[in-house]
Design goal:
By secondary structure, the protein is mainly β. It contains 9 helices and 103 strands. The strands form 25 sheets. Strands 4-6-9-8-7-10-11-5 form an 8-stranded mixed sheet, with no helix packed on it. An 8-stranded mixed sheet has the order 73-75-78-77-76-79-80-74, with no helix packed on it. A 7-stranded antiparallel sheet has the order 91-92-95-94-93-96-97, with no helix packed on it. A hairpin with a 5-residue loop joins strand 10 and strand 11. The longest helix is centred in the last third of the chain and has 9 residues. It is globular, with a radius of gyration of 41 Å. The two termini are 61 Å apart.
Length: 1240
């Protein structure tokens, strides 16, 4: 039998459990308590135990077979089921943890004799013993329950659904197996859900609604507790499927389904085997559906990503205190904690040792260098712990640590990352900034200067593994000055390239390039002594006569000689950046060289007269763009694709032709807020179709293109993406390697071409007119036949020949009004264009811009102010714009409101200007954008026009005004910024009657157009701050409580959900007040009940005291919160004899009148009056009920005398004539709490 003893045993208080037999106490094994004689009958722990021992008929005692559930969250569980034997007389269930001083008991709700139902109460995490209570107080049975952590709702995916509901949603988190109910805030209908065995996810189907768009918060119920999910579900209109078409193939059928999304069209693709066709009609299902390539994300759980690299089939990621190994899809394979204990070696010849700890640890091994050696299946990690530490890990499994020793290879300070990579599979090159006296005071032997060194990666090399010495010493290249920042490094053939930012003798920032030739003799000394250098100058001297003198990120351009480098440069303003290309081919002449910034072995002397670094200027400046932070260059056939990360969270793709001329700039990924992209990016080495980039605490794998989203040849071609082409066999847009043994049609070399087919007229010497059609489709893949057919309104026109990419035909004598249908066939792909031909000689009139535009659009030429048949005339539309007459009549732009907006766009923007009457549209185009956006005019007054600014990508766009002739005029710009971010709402609760002042904190909130609550369609009134960091609004009223209402923000046509919902609680209840006079004011204390969750603040309340029909302002000084009662203290500036007959309290839109319920006596005296556990010093008189003379404990105060006692009899007699001294018998404090409730 168990008994519990609580008390203070030696230096440890607590409880011990003993097993006691009648008369012989025995300690529980492992309890650490010696056998002892305990007080009681016959040595038992208590007098009842002797009775329990007399139980007869052991078989009649209750037994426990099982409890369902046996594991639960610490919130408890309703309607648990216990099965057993002999349960008929059980009246309760007792639960008690080991050493618990008190047990929990639960009453039985249903008892069948073989099972019983009961509510398991809330408890603390851990294991508890369970027994069954009988009417005599004994407890029998042997079972246990385990309390675990509460469910956590981490995220909901997908985060949106259609209004008709039934979309399959998934909640991710932990301990979700304990959830008993899932609810949506917009309805009381129960949600059907399914749980997984591991508790990591919970699946449910969204409920239907009759309104959209809006957001509905999701809550989980566990026992009697409700948990809110962090994100709400956005309800959107149902999708609209507008059309489909089928494309047969030998063994399958390709279906293309058009889905209307807003004002744009998307297409879904799927393939079907012929055997499935009958089932398709019957079931309405699709098989093998294709989808857009997803963006894979690896979220770090322990801080921002500091560095990462890609090698073979794996990705290695360094965070604050972890090293992770991922597969190429960013699935986690292994994690290696970098926190533990470091034990320094007993002497300099003995290396220290770093021992990892699963949790905690005083030391952190901060990795600054990741150097994979794929050929040897090794990964070297070096960084900051003590004076430097390196480990050699298995490349396939980083948890297999092969060695770890003290080596100062990379930076020995945690900040930043060194440049390190393997050279010739022989050395590990490290270019590291040296420590200074402030950041590493203990490493006195390490030079306080930046160095470039080579370290062995083989044990067999001279000096052993990771040694930097050779037969001639410890060679190194030293920086001559402090403040060197190494940016990038790589090896091409026998040359090592190192790039750095340095500050020279005059503290002038400079970008330096070093060439180091790898010696054939495997000599570190000869290798490092060979260095030469250059200075990169970027780019154009600005207005302040300053160049871009800092390299942010760089990427070598793949290919043979010359060696080209793409680099991003900035100056003191980090947001002004330029992207330039340099020829960094090493110098071939071996001249004696002297470098002003670096020297071999730190030689401080410079030899005069020797040549220094050469100056390299950019071969081409590709792009000037705001806040570029990272660059990656990739070759694709004759194209150069440059991926650019930005500081405002975008991944750009810049396409360059064979001459390095920038053609198109597009955005392939953007973050909703401003998130800086890490300076280093990598290409997926296997598929070469994804870019790895890091943003804060997330590593992302972004597709280089989304070819599959283009559902037609025209759409695929108009994307102007060299990665995408139309596959003739698959009849879809694809990557070239996805279209084997088939024709693959891609974009032309000039991406500025706007038409797949263009035409012109030719007049020969006999006056005959020929029609020439040019095909701007580039052939790839398998060879294909090329042919043309000309059908006209007068019959088939005779072809004069066709040779890719041009074909011609002879036109009849009468051309005007002739309709020609041109069909160009490339293999199995046909492209058709309808032409309405005009007589070029008949396009006559004054040489205006409109006439010129009509001439060129008809395929004619423009020469000497007239339209002509000949091809010698101008064919470029720009010649027409130069013909504009009456410049004063051209439209001009004065202003656009707003001029800054989020990338979601803006409805009803207003443009003001002059001569706007003929404007039919507004064109927006960013620098190097391959396609412009156009918006129609909604309202035009001649002096202003209203239009919807479409969604765009973050950055600056130029704006001009479209006229009917196709020309565009005016000069203005707009800037797209990040979307609003709703980070938090404070306070997060409100009273049901509404009108509480709430504040949304975040960023870019100035772009918010509407705030809504999920429980109502009523509009919310709100106010924005100029900095966009906060948005204030008043909560709306509701007729129900408690519940949660999600908050959404509307920006243009997009809805953003706030992460937390607002909890609606009952209105506060003001129960009493009392006044305490002072010489020049009156102190009011108001008692507030049931408001602890509201956490009311001074800004929520307005208090006025009523005196003779006049309202007196009461200045709130503080609000004290307790478990169930709040105390509001305010001061009325009034005379001490003011009599407050009532108090008016205003919160939100409600005003409460609080009147006294008890009339009290005023007694002149000076005491420290204690009420509700606090003290107030009253200097004039005490407002006190007469009963208090018998009950209230008080402190009599006079100068120099503080003592505790009763009120003087004369004061009590004055307050209560019936008072008799000596009748004070009740406890003062409790009586005061009961009687002094309302004081007026």
């Amino acid at each position: 039998m168990y008994s519990t003893v609580c008390g203070n045993r030696g230096l440890r208080g607590g409880c011990e459990r003993f097993v006691t037999r009648w008369g012989e106490p025995v300690s529980v094994p492992g309890s650490g308590v010696a056998s002892a004689s305990l007080p009681g009958v016959g040595g038992a722990t208590g007098p009842m135990n002797v009775c329990f021992a007399l139980q007869t008929g052991v078989n009649s005692l209750p037994e426990i077979f099982s409890i369902t559930p046996s594991e639960l969250s610490f919130y408890g569980k309703n309607n648990a089921v216990l099965t057993g034997r002999n349960l008929g007389h059980v009246i309760g269930v007792r639960l008690q943890g080991d050493l618990d001083c008190s047990a929990k008991e639960a009453s039985v709700r249903l008892n069948t004799g073989a099972s019983l139902t009961f509510h398991i109460p809330a408890g603390d995490k851990g294991r508890v013993e369970v027994c069954l209570l009988l009417p005599d107080g004994s407890c029998h049975g042997n079972a246990s329950l385990t309390y675990l952590s509460a469910p956590v709702c981490a995220s909901i995916a997908l985060d949106s659904t259609w209004a008709s509901g039934k979309r399959k949603m998934n909640i991710s988190g932990s301990n979700l197996e304990f959830v008993e109910e899932v609810t949506h805030s917009h309805t009381n209908q129960k949600v059907t859900f399914w749980k997984t065995d591991d508790g990591g996810s919970l699946k449910f189907e969204s409920l239907a609604t009759d309104r959209d768009p809006f957001s509905s918060s999701v809550t989980l119920r566990v026992a009697n507790h409700t948990l809110a999910c962090p994100a709400a579900i956005r309800y959107l209109p149902d999708p609209q499927f507008s059309a489909f078409y089928a494309t047969p193939a030998p063994d399958h059928l390709l279906l293309t389904i058009t889905l209307a999304v807003g004002r744009s069209l998307r297409r879904l693709f799927c393939t079907m085997e012929f055997a499935w066709l009958p089932l398709f009609v019957a079931l309405g299902g699709l098989r093998g559906a294709r989808a857009l390539q997803e963006i894979d994300v690896f979220p770090s759980r322990d801080g921002d990503i500091r560095d990462f690299t890609v090698a073979a089939r794996w990705v290695y990621v360094v965070t604050g205190d972890h090293l992770y190994q991922l597969n190429l899809s960013l699935g986690l394979l292994h994690g290696l904690p970098q926190r533990g204990t470091y034990k320094k070696g007993v002497n300099p010849l003995v290396s220290g040792r770093f021992n990892r700890a699963s949790e905690g640890g005083a030391s952190i091994f901060t990795v600054n260098t990741l150097a994979p050696v794929v050929e040897r299946n090794l990964l070297f990690t070096c960084g900051a712990i003590d004076c430097g530490y390196c480990e050699m890990l298995n490349l396939t499994d980083i948890t297999r640590i092969l060695s770890g020793e003290d080596y100062e290879v990379s930076r020995v300070v945690p900040e930043g990352a060194s440049v390190g990579f393997v050279v010739d599979n022989t050395y590990l090159l490290s270019a590291a900034e040296g420590p200074n006296e402030t950041n590493v005071p203990v490493c006195q032997d390490i030079p306080k200067i930046s160095r470039i060194r080579l370290f062995n990666i083989h044990n067999s090399q001279e000096g052993g593994l990771l040694s930097s010495i050779d037969g001639r010493g410890d060679p190194a290249i030293h920086a001559r000055h402090h403040g060197v920042q190494f940016v990038d490094g790589f090896q091409i053939k026998s040359t090592i390239f190192l790039l750095s930012n340095v500050k020279g003798q005059a503290n002038t920032p400079t970008v330096r390039l070093l060439w180091v030739t790898v010696a054939t003799s495997e000599s570190k000394t000869e290798t490092l002594k060979s260095f030469q250098g250059a200075t990169l100058v970027c780019c154009e001297v600005g207005e302040a006569n300053q160049s871009r003198s800092r390299l942010v990120s760089s990427s070598v351009i793949p290919g043979d000689q010359p060696v080209l480098l793409a680099g991003i440069f900035n100056d003191h303003d980090v947001t002004n950046t330029e992207l330039a290309i340099y020829d960094i081919s090493p110098q071939t002449d071996a001249k004696t060289y002297e470098d002003p910034d670096f020297s071999y072995l730190g030689n401080p002397l410079m030899v005069a007269g020797r040549p220094g670094p050469i100056m390299l200027k950019p071969r081409r400046v590709l792009l000037k763009h705001r806040y570029m932070t990272s660059v990656l260059a990739v070759k694709l056939n004759n194209w150069l694709i440059v991926f650019i990360g930005t500081g405002d969270g975008q991944l750009l793709k810049l396409t360059l032709d064979a001459t390095l001329q920038a053609q198109c700039l597009s955005v392939i990924w953007k973050a909703p807020d401003d998130r800086r992209v890490f300076p280093k990016m990598h290409l997926d080495p296997v598929g070469r179709k994804h870019v790895f980039l890091a943003v804060r605490d997330k590593l992302m794998r972004v597709p280089v293109s989304q070819c599959v989203q283009h559902g037609s040849l025209e759409s695929c071609w108009n994307a102007r993406d060299p990665y995408c082409g139309w596959c003739g066999a698959l009849r879809r847009c694809s990557f070239e390697d996805e279209c084997p043994s088939s024709l693959w049609l891609s974009v032309p070399d000039d991406l500025r071409q706007r038409r797949m087919l263009s035409h012109s007229f030719q007049e020969d010497a006999e006056g005959k007119i020929r029609l020439a059609v040019f095909t701007h489709l580039k052939r790839g893949g398998a060879p294909a036949n090329f042919s043309c057919r000309f059908d006209s309104s007068v019959g088939v026109l005779g072809g004069l020949g066709h040779r890719y990419p041009e074909c011609t035909c002879l036109l009849p004598p009468v051309i005007a009004g002739l309709r020609v249908s041109v069909t160009v066939s490339l293999g199995e792909v046909d492209v058709t264009e309808e032409l309405n031909l005009l007589n070029c000689s008949g396009i006559t009139g004054a040489p205006t811009s409109l006439l010129c535009s009509q001439c060129l659009a008809a395929g004619c030429g423009w020469s000497n102010g007239a339209c002509t048949w000949t091809r010698s005339g101008a064919l470029n539309m720009n010649v027409c714009f130069a013909l504009q007459t009456g410049v004063n009549s051209l439209p001009e732009i004065f202003s656009i409101t707003p001029s800054e907006l989020s990338f979601y766009g803006k409805n009803n923007a207003v443009l003001t200007g002059r001569n706007l009457g003929n404007v039919i549209g507004v064109r927006l185009q960013g620098h190097l954008d391959c396609s412009a956006k156009e918006a129609s005019v909604r309202l035009n007054t001649g002096a202003s026009l209203t239009f919807h600014i479409p969604a765009g990508d973050k950055g600056r766009v130029e704006v001009c005004l479209l006229l009917p002739d196709g020309s565009c005029h005016g000069n203005a710009s707009l800037t797209y910024l990040s979307a609003p971010v709703c980070a938090s709402i404070a306070p997060d609760s409100t009273w049901a009657s509404g009108k509480r002042k709430m504040n949304i904190s975040g960023s870019n909130l100035e772009f918010v157009e509407e705030v809504t609550h999920s429980h109502t369609n009523q509009k919310v009134t709100f106010w924005k701050t100029d900095d966009g960091a906060s948005l204030k609004f008043e909560s709306l009223a509701t007729d129900r409580d408690p519940f949660s209402s999600s908050v959404t923000l509307r920006v243009a046509n997009h809805t953003l959900a706030c992460p937390t919902a607002i909890r609606y609680l009952p209105d506060p209840q003001f129960s009493a007040f009392y006044a305490t006079p002072a010489p020049d004011h009156l102190l009011l204390t108001i008692i507030l009940k049931r408001a602890e969750e509201l956490q009311m603040a001074e800004v929520d309340l307005e208090v006025r005291g009523v005196q003779g029909g006049e309202d007196l302002d009461c200045d709130i000084r503080k609000i004290e919160h307790s478990k169930a009662t709040d105390f509001i203290t305010c001061i009325i500036q009034s005379s001490s004899d003011a009599e407050i007959t009532a108090v008016k309290i205003t919160y939100g839109a409600k005003t409460v009148l609080l009147e006294p319920h008890l009339v009290l006596h005023g007694v002149p005296h000076s005491i420290n009056y204690r009420d509700f556990g606090r003290s107030y010093y009253v200097g004039v008189y005490l407002l006190l009920p007469a009963e208090a003379c018998r009950t209230v404990e008080h402190e009599h105060r006079r100068p120099g005398d503080v003592r505790l006692g009763r009120y003087p009899p004369r004061l009590c007699k004055q307050a209560d004539p019936s008072y008799v001294e000596g009748q004070e018998t009740e406890d003062a404090t409790s009586a005061a709490r009961g009687t002094a409730r309302l004081v007026s």
